[in-house]
Amino acid sequence: MSADDLARLAGRHLDLQQAPFTLPGSRILVFGGADGAGIRVHTAAYEKPLDACRVIDRLVVTDAAGAVASVTEVQPHAVSFGDGIATLVFAGAEALSIDGRPGTVVEWTTPDGSTGCHLFGGPVRFDVAGDRAIAVTEWAGHDSAVAEAQAVWRDWFAKCPVVRDDLQEMTAFCWWVLGANIIRLPALQGGRPVVPSKIGYVGLWQWDAYFIAVGLRHGDPELAREQLDLAFRYPTAAGQLPDVVHEEGVLASSDDLPQADRDRLRRAGSAIADPNAPVPLTKPPLSAWALRKVLEAAPETPEIRAWARRQLQTIRRSQDWWFADSDLDGDGMPEYGHPYSSGLDDSPIFDGPLPTTAPDLGAYLVRQDLELARFAEEYGDADPALHRGRAGRTLGLLMQLWDADRSVFLARAAGAPVASDAVTGLMPLLTGELPPATTAALVAAIDDPRRYATPWGLPTVAASDPDFSATRMWRGPVWINTNALVAEGLELCGFPERARALRECTVDLVVHGGGPHEYFNPLTGEKAPAATTAFGWSAALFVDLAVQLSR
């Protein structure tokens, strides 16, 4: 299948509603008009809603008879109006170009109420500067802009993995999502970060970078490695990796939060959460897991081994940081000092006081030390026994969270058990080293329709739990990353067929739901109302799952 064929498959999903028209590296987003006619243009910015980043409120094309021409086709490189009477393309990352047949007119309105029009006898270019500024000029470069935009996407789709026929179209769309979400972040001083979404998530979050790299490795392993390079670029002096790098710098502490967020942290009711005593903000320790997967797609060369050694230095210091600086009650088991550090911000396990001792964090720490032990054996850069010993101690502490009567791993809020039956309690499968009876109980929970066997995968809170909501973020909806991690845990624990079934269910969910949304209703398989669309880690993990299922 050619790159152009794959681009056309992706184009079937570019509806200008859930998937805007954009270009790798650009901040410009083109959506369908609010009134159903024409288009509107926004830019992407960190922590700013689309409505605050309007550039053109309405742009319409009218034919020679004065009738408004609808958008009739969207392909990755071009938007067509009226079956081809006009075409809109990118002219580089910061401009749009439109050309039409003689007698055709383009009209536009900007947020300040000003209007403009152009009678086509040649193309017009819209240069975008900032959130609301445009400069409109006639120019002669439209045809070359078409060719350049097509070449950008042709090069991108040439790397798209070829998978099973029933998964190929969605894989092409997910590959488009990853390319579309490439952006420039000034704070990173170079590089090609693939952000979670240009709609609301313009930054490089640790967790997202790991999952995105895992998907990218199948078609662009160099870009996958670059995501880890960027994610590991700004550790603190103590070795902590930051939560996010964004437009204005690095978010690694509650001191970096807006005042309203610091006030909410104070109200959580723990001395640890006192805003006058900064709380580190990070993301779960899956860095060695991600490095392992990215290296699986990399050639075994001296250069790659040297690159891996550099990353391992950062990862080992980060792992040590969890035990030295995030064991907030001093019992040997690190805790989350802030919900942001979990990636599951709104989970009911954080409804109580902080800090939170969470089974998912314990599982990730065990998995990370086991991975680091393997790397130490392969690279000779550390003592594997130290990592294996710590993994064993952490596993022992993790088992103290097991409630045998309820067959669930429970979190603790400032030392007190949290009753919520959340997907965090399934993550200990990732250790691959649970007692057989515990593993069997978790598999039974996954297969129990009263708890986790909902029609469309694993809810983030068990269906029988009082905290369950089918649509509220992290309180019931299915997330692609939690499904994928639990599937991997099932395989590590000796249940490969059950793991495959969950992976098949997960790709079916994305196809059924119409794309790689942020999260899904577990009962209907549809996008949850507040979920972001064209979401980076959902796209990347769909690609990863599709490749696995196509072998």
Question: Could you characterize what this model shows?
Answer:
The structure is a single chain. Helices cover 36% and strands 15% of the residues. By secondary structure, the chain is of the alpha+beta class. It folds into 2 domains: 3-154, no CATH class; 159-549, Glycosyltransferase, CATH 1.50.10. The strands form 5 sheets. Strands 1, 2, 3, 4, 9 and 10 form a 6-stranded antiparallel beta sheet that branches. It has a 6-stranded antiparallel beta sheet with strand order 5-6-7-8-11-12. A hairpin with a 5-residue loop joins strand 9 (105-109) and strand 10 (115-119). Helix 1 packs across helix 3 (165-180) and helix 4 (206-216) runs parallel beside helix 14 (536-549). The protein is elongated, with a radius of gyration of 24 Å. It starts with a helix and ends with a helix.
